[in-house]
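All the exercises in this workshop are built on plain-text protein records. A record pairs a protein's sequence with a compact description of its fold. Backbone structure tokens are a discrete shorthand for how the chain folds in space. Once this layout is familiar, the rest of the handout is easier to follow. As an example, a complete record with its sequence and its structure tokens follows.
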Amino acid sequence: MNSMSTTGPIRVAAIPKHYLQFTVRTYTRSMASAGLRYSNPPLVKKCYDQPTGKRFISSTPQSQIKDYFPPPDAPKIVEVKTAWAHPVYSEEEMRAVTVGHREAKNWSDWVALGSVRLLRWGMDLVTGYKHPAPGQEDIKKFQMTEKEWLRRFVFLESVAGVPGMVGGMLRHLRSLRRMKRDNGWIETLLEEAYNERMHLLTFLKMAEPGWFMRLMVLGAQGVFFNGFFLSYLISPRTCHRFVGYLEEEAVLTYTRAIKDLESGRLPHWEKLEAPEIAVKYWKMPEGNRTMKDLLLYVRADEAKHREVNHTLGNLKQAVDVNPFAVEWKDPSKPHPGKGIKHLKTTGWEREEVV
């Protein structure tokens, strides 16, 4: 017999409507932000260190923020050196980076642009991002907190490191299979993937992804890797144009984050220092190691990837030399290079570099 039938009448106290609304709203917000946990206490100290007369006790074990890349357990080794030293950017060069867009000129460009727009829609949905129209930045539904920005950065960079690795891998195998040189493409593509991974590792020093974010990254990376792999086999030119358009969106994202920081919408980042891994990788000078400086460096990298991939998309994939890995006869003229001194928003045309 059901045990409920043996008990007396149960009287349920009415729950006030305003309390129910508060409970539902709080639960919804907590689930939406469950994908990320801060690993830097100052970011959340002011938000949650409210004085109360209660002592909250929980039997749930507290998660410990682990270091995603601790130093190697090797007493004889001081540091692991990288094969790709990052070029030094000046503050003037980084501030000169602008949002830009290359117009689609053929069916290949339109396929790439449409794919990026679809990917952008999915990324916005997962990260809760809504891009405001000009003049609507102060509307509440468009405002982003520090935690929400970090969630978007982590998701974006975990996916952005895929194209360079896939392209470099396929070109490496093609070079071995055909027993011919690759003309400098492999190194540039692998270096791009490494750079995007350094972006991710830097942001992971500031926040630890939760189970929801890990699941989303796993699914997105699995689908994106295989899709890009097959697409690169079919049309490398379209894939490079796709990455160029994707980096346009990345520049737009970081530009808005910088504007939010400069306008005072992200108060916890105003005096936040960049992680040590970022200081060493970008060779950040003394006095220019804040969160704002970090975002300027990352945006400059994304702008460089935008230029590189739009340029590679303009070349003949099987025969042309990678213009970012060569020594020019006349260095006094503007040419493609590893730095951002002569950065071109829409890439270099083939006639300019071949």
